[in-house]
């Protein structure tokens, strides 16, 4: 415990492992030395000076070898288990952080979409009041879709394409013949999914960053190509805008980076600007990963129970194998000092406590204590 606090930032470093093992080994040899003094002076009534006179380094060879092997096994098992537990904790933290980040990115869409839609409506009111009225009606339908989909991780491609068509029709109310689009909706896999509102953000970027006029009409093409949903527009860059990708495109890239290893690809040449977003056929997300670590579900409880039983029986088998070996080594090479009793008793005590935890009082007590605390918390909440 002391070393864990001392090596707080390097808990699983090689330096920490070597220091812990060396300290345990030195302490074990010191205890063996004290036990030899106790046996020779107290039990056999020899003098302390006689003990030091007859004591030889060779008396510690076998105990040192045995201690080295046993401690090496114990430390290896401990650090392996602790390292795996730490990895699980890290994954929980990563999952929680990614979930929070994903929610933050999704929440950017709602105000971002509303702000840009109001800008379009403001322009229409001045340019074409009749279209502004129709735009308002259509906008309510579009915004309903935004509210329904913004909390989802993935949505079917068919729904996203249908929404994109509605959104493009809204844009055409404003730009009329200055804007044209091609939308392919055939041969779409019903299981295919994309990040919600990704097309809306890409279409919005296309209009925002390119010239849209009667002299230079903007054409936007939306189609499926080899596992990607492609949005391609004529490259007619507005000179007044800086060379940047914009909030919308970066939002899509960030959200895809959280839920999949497949990348959003961007290509640009003299005539076109193309963005390809991956079509996903299986919904995998860090939110699901976080759910897998939910300690209240039945699967986790069953798995934890199996691990406890496996750990205990492994401990028991090791005890039954190692202790007889230690007894043989002790009686064969140093029968005058029966040190194997200390290993057998110490390990046996630990094995007994392990058994109580797995099968007996400890596990029942923990369960009762958890229920008691939960009842107290419920009572507190009732009176708030």
Can you walk me through this structure?
Strand 6 (265-268) and strand 7 form a beta hairpin. 68% of the residues lie in helices and 9% in strands. It folds into two domains: 100-289, Heat Shock Protein 90, CATH 3.30.565; 294-384. The protein starts with a helix and ends with a helix. Helix 4 packs antiparallel against helix 5, helix 4 (61-127) packs across helix 9 and helix 7 runs antiparallel to helix 8. The protein has helices at residues 2-6, 14-43, 48-54, 61-127, 129-149, 157-175, 198-209, 246-259, 286-292, 298-333, 340-359, 361-382, and strands at 155-156, 179-183, 193-194, 218-225, 228-234, 265-268, 272-278. By secondary structure, the chain is α+β, with helices and mostly antiparallel strands. It is rod-shaped.
Keywords:
Heat Shock Protein 90; alpha+beta; 7 strands; disordered C terminus; 384 residues; five-stranded mixed sheet; rod-shaped; 12 helices
What string, H for helix and E for strand, traces the elements in order?
A: HHHHHEHEEHEEHEEHHHH
Numbering strands along the chain, what is their spatial order in the largest sheet?
Answer: 2-4-5-7-6
Going by helix content, strand content and strand pairing, the class is alpha+beta
Mean pLDDT: 75
- Count of alpha and pi helical runs: 12
What distance separates the N and C termini?
40 Å
- Provide the CATH architecture of the largest domain: 2-Layer Sandwich
Q: How many separate structural domains?
A: 2
The major β-sheet equals: 5 strands, mixed
Helix % is: 55-70%
Question: Mind telling me the C-alpha Rg?
Answer: 35 Å
- Poorly predicted regions: 283-296, 380-384
Quick one: overall form?
A: rod-shaped
Number of DSSP strand runs: 7
- Name of the top-level CATH class of the largest domain: Alpha Beta
CATH topology of the largest domain: Heat Shock Protein 90
Q: Which percent range describes the beta-strand content?
A: 5-15%
